[in-house]
Amino acid sequence: MENIDVTVLRTLRNWRLESKRALLVTVVRTWGSSPRPVGSIMALSEDGAVVGSVSGGCIEDDLISQYRKAYAGDDSELQVSRGIPQFVKYGITADEAHQFGLPCGGTLELLIEYDPEVNALDELVRTLEAGNLMKRVVCLTNGRVTLSIASTPCELSIGSELVNVFGPPYRMLLIGAGQLTEYLATMALFNGFSVTVCDPREEYLGTWGLTGVQLIRGMPDDVLASFKADRRSCVIALTHDPKLDDLALLEALSTDAFYIGAIGSRRNNELRRIRMMEYFGKSEHDLQRLRGPIGIYVGSKTPPEIAVSIMAEVLAIKNDVTLSPEVNVAQAKHLRDIKINVSDATH
């Protein structure tokens, strides 16, 4: 699946190219629990069509109602005559939170832009489709938009201007084209990642059955060098073959990839670290970003369950979540072994 922001912006661009009136709505602040994070966007066309989301649905329904009233000249909280961006809050009181389906105590503030200028939207969409990060700055006094290429992702900020950085999809490079890879690639696509699978072994690529994934035949370390992993990339080795995994992982550790990991048991991962230190001169510090065994501990045994475990850990790291040591696979299995030994000793 495509990055949802790109989908929203492209759809909005197309509406405006058809001379349809439309809104761009951005979540700019939240208090307490909120259904969508800051920076989430949605677009609403004059005919009531919606793409994207700022809540679980109830706020979208209210915006559709208010938008239609405003353009029909009926009483509405939305003031669209000058096209100046407008702030709207939802969920300020407990009754409103209940009415709009927000969690208890949840409040969010939206910025609504009316009829965004089509040329700026077209430039933004084309730049994102080319794989670039783009900074979009909206002047809050007149709605004027300026665009520039961004070097790094950053969080939305708001003062006299709204500053939001949009980027291409997060990328995942998977080394090995086995069954586990197909499950993990499916989940990554579903979560908006662009997925590349690398495997020089013809017998594996010949049976690949998943569409929407770029397949590359070549040695993984060479592919990794051309992949140019950045802060929106993750690299995962799934072959169990040191000849394919090790050099690629070493190459990945020289990049800014936010997640680097390899499948394997605790023993195999320890042996990998030993090889990298003995034969490639790496230190523990050099290898601290290398994850393994990968995933969060859910007692996984089957390929789909293992894929769920890995994807959960990737998303947690992507979203800057600190995982408890108890969900670390190696730590959890160590604690399990201690419990088993204690139980055996008491019988």
Automatic annotation (TrEMBL):
<dbReference type="InterPro" id="IPR052698">
    <property type="entry name" value="MoCofactor_Util/Proc"/>
</dbReference>
<dbReference type="InterPro" id="IPR003777">
    <property type="entry name" value="XdhC_CoxI"/>
</dbReference>
<dbReference type="Pfam" id="PF02625">
    <property type="entry name" value="XdhC_CoxI"/>
</dbReference>
<protein>
    <submittedName>
        <fullName>XdhC family protein</fullName>
    </submittedName>
</protein>
<dbReference type="InterPro" id="IPR027051">
    <property type="entry name" value="XdhC_Rossmann_dom"/>
</dbReference>
<dbReference type="Pfam" id="PF13478">
    <property type="entry name" value="XdhC_C"/>
</dbReference>
<feature type="domain" description="XdhC Rossmann">
    <location>
        <begin position="172"/>
        <end position="314"/>
    </location>
</feature>
<feature type="domain" description="XdhC- CoxI">
    <location>
        <begin position="15"/>
        <end position="76"/>
    </location>
</feature>
